[in-house]
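Summary of Year 1 activities. Much of the first year was spent building the evaluation harness for sequence design. The harness presents a backbone, in tokenized form, and records the residue chosen at every position. We chose the following record to illustrate the format because it has been used consistently in internal testing since the harness was completed.
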């Protein structure tokens, strides 16, 4: 079945917004995606009908509690766990990771080792570096392979020993787009006695996550990167979340997931996230899928992924045909998502970005907080790369037009 791109696009109001009459090509999706009407409607509905705090008998409060429970259950289906208590919602991935690093530090002793991959965004680096510094832990760096653009099992095995307590690993790089074999790598680390904390922020808009299939201990993602509001979400194994030292107010609930919900949640955004999860089900229905909520998520992501891969192959081929352009990532689709970064022989990323943005081709440039990736690749620390990130609402025409603009700017 053909991907219903026209219906999808009509369902994202911002895609038809213009700047002084000029259309926008949103290829800045790796930094944050646009939201569907369902998300907007849910946020508006919250403020119009049941804006309230939680936990009392007012009808508004009862509805907030029901919405929160409904959203965490839908998120559990979305991430592949049957247990909504394993889903923590917070401000963003970075804040949640800091919060959990403070709790996890209680499990580690001076001299213990943690491994951080060099494929990470700083959100999965600095919290662990600071935890290590505060607690006299040793940090081991895990390189990625320059041919596969991924962390290979041999590199990890060489670092593991009986002192290894934690592996911080990303699912997909926000600079190169490389996708790690998280299941294999997590299994190796866990067999050595380490916990595994996965950053799936860049992965989540492209492929459906299955935390139980991966067998990881923690997995973080950010709804604003997968068509939702600015929030962060962490999956954590129940036994760990129950036993971890929680940094919470004394009077706050000990129950999961509230044990790790610090302060008053952004209820309107959580309602919006429910709208995003409904959007995926709406899309599944459009492509003729039936079944459980999880099956609908699978169908939506299957359709989105197939369509996006087609756009990726066009963009990849086009970028590689441009003289002087060096792609910083895999040239095939096999182990990557649709996040494409490049440098050019004669044009700086900042100059290219300025020129592209002035033509309505939205993009990103710089280190993109992938500091270790940039160091490994020998990139200029400030200029970094020019980054383009596709989403399933982009079109073939946009890819062709983007390539024409890039060719013109780089000629
Ligand atoms: C791979 C990756 N990890 C972590 C983050 C940080 O996420 P947040 O903004 O939710 O803290 C980002 C944001 O760009 C990212 O791309």
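For this record, the design step produced the sequence shown next.
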């Amino acid at each position: 079945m053909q991907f219903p791109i026209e219906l999808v696009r009509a369902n994202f109001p911002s895609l038809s917004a213009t700047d002084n009459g000029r259309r926008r090509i949103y290829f800045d999706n790796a930094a944050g995606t646009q939201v569907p009407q369902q998300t907007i409607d849910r946020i508006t509905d919250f403020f119009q009908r049941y804006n309230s705090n939680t936990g009392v008998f007012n009808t508004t409060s009862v509805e907030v509690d029901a919405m929160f429970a409904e959203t965490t259950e839908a998120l559990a289906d979305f991430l592949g766990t049957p247990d909504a208590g394993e889903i923590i919602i917070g401000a963003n991935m970075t804040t949640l990771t800091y919060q959990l690093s403070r709790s996890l530090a209680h499990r580690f002793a001076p001299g213990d080792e943690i491994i951080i991959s060099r494929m990470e965004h700083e959100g999965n680096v600095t919290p662990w570096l600071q935890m290590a510094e505060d607690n006299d832990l040793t940090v081991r760096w895990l390189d990625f392979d320059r041919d596969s653009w991924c962390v290979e099992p041999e590199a990890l095995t060489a670092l593991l020993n009986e002192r290894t307590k934690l592996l911080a690993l990303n699912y997909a790089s926000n600079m190169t787009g490389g996708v790690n074999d998280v299941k294999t790598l997590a299994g190796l680390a866990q067999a050595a006695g380490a916990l595994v904390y996965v950053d799936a922020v860049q992965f989540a808009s492209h492929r459906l996550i299955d935390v139980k299939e991966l067998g990881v201990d923690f997995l973080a993602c950010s709804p604003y990167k997968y068509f939702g509001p600015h929030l962060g979400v962490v999956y954590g194994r129940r036994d760990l979340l129950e036993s971890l030292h929680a940094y919470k107010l004394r009077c706050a609930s000990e129950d999961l997931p509230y044990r790790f919900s610090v302060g008053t949640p952004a209820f309107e955004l959580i309602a919006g996230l429910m709208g995003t999860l409904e959007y995926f089900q709406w899309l599944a229905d459009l492509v003729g899928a039936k079944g459980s909520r999880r099956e609908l998520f699978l169908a939506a992501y299957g359709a989105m992924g197939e369509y996006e891969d087609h756009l990726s192959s066009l963009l990849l081929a086009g970028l590689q045909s441009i003289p002087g352009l060096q792609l910083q990532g895999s040239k095939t689709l096999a182990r990557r998502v649709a996040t494409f970064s490049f440098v050019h022989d004669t044009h700086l990323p900042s100059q290219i970005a300025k020129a592209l943005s002035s033509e309505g081709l939205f993009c990103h440039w710089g280190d993109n907080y992938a500091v270790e990736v940039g160091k490994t690749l020998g990139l200029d620390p400030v200029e970094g790369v020019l980054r383009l990130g596709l989403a399933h609402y982009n079109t073939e025409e946009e890819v062709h037009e983007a390539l024409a603009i890039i060719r013109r700017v780089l000629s």
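The two ends are 39 Å apart (CA to CA). Quantitative recovery figures across the full test set are reported in Table 2.
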